[in-house]
Amino acid sequence: MYSFTGNEFSIDRPLLNNDNIAFVFMNSNGATESAAIGIYPIVAEMASGNGSLNYNIRYVAGQMTVTQKQLNIQINSAEKEYGQADPAFSFRVFDTRGVEYLPSMISGKPERDAGEKPNVYNIKKGNLACNQNYNLNIVEGKLTIKKALPQISAAFSNDTQKTIISYITGTPNANIPTGKISVNIPSCGINISANVKQGTANCMLMDLPADEVLAHIHYAGDENYLPVSRSVKLYAIRYHSNGGDLLNPITHFDGNETIRPETPTRQQRYRFEGWYENPDFEGNPLQRIVLGTYRNVDLYAKWVTSFDDLSVVVLFNQVLAVANPLKREFLERATYKWFRNGQQIEGNKQYIGFENYVPTGEYKVEIYYDGNIPIVIELKHTATVPMSKIFPNPAKVNAPVQIESAYSADENTQIELFSSDGKRLALSNIEKRGNNFTFNTSRKAGIYFVRIVQNGITIETHKLIIEDK
Question: Does one domain contain both 196 and 290?
Answer without folding.
Answer: yes
